[in-house]
């Protein structure tokens, strides 16, 4: 956590949750393509992969991320 956010947490008692579409990883908050294909195949006619992924990408603006872990050996890369 950046120190400035920690100070803000102490000052306000409020947590910061970034939107998933603001992460550098464009896949953050999205299912794998393999899973999306599986879901589309099982939802029946009218559900195709391109539209489903497009909808999910647009919905990422409404998702907020909270990531907590207890293990010292974990990092943001392998968490």
Model description:
- With 79 residues, the protein is mainly α.
- Helices cover 41% and strands 0% of the residues.
- It contains 3 helices and no strands.
- The protein has helices at 3-12, 33-43, 49-59.
- The longest helix is centred in the middle third of the chain and has 11 residues, at 33-43.
- It is elongated and about 50 Å long.
- 0% of the residues are buried.
- The mean pLDDT is 82.
Alpha-carbon Rg, integer: 17 Å
Task: Please bin the fraction of helical residues.
Answer: 40-55%
N-end to C-end Cα span: 14 Å
Q: Round the mean pLDDT to the nearest integer and report it.
A: 82
The DSSP helix count reads 3
Main sheet attributes: strand count, strand direction, barrel closure: none
Low-confidence segments, ≥5 residues, pLDDT <50?
none
Q: Helix and strand string, N-terminal first?
A: HHH
Structural class based on helices, strands and sheet pairing? mainly alpha
Name the beta content range.
under 5%
Outline type: elongated
Q: Tally of extended strands?
A: 0
């Amino acid at each position: 956590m950046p120190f400035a956010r920690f100070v803000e947490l102490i000052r306000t008692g409020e947590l910061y949750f970034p939107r998933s579409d603001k992460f550098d990883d464009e896949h953050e908050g999205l299912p794998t393509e393999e899973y999306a294909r599986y879901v589309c195949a099982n939802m029946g006619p009218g559900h195709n992969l391109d539209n489903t992924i497009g909808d999910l990408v647009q919905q990422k603006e409404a998702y907020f991320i909270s990531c907590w872990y207890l293990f010292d050996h974990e990092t943001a890369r392998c968490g």
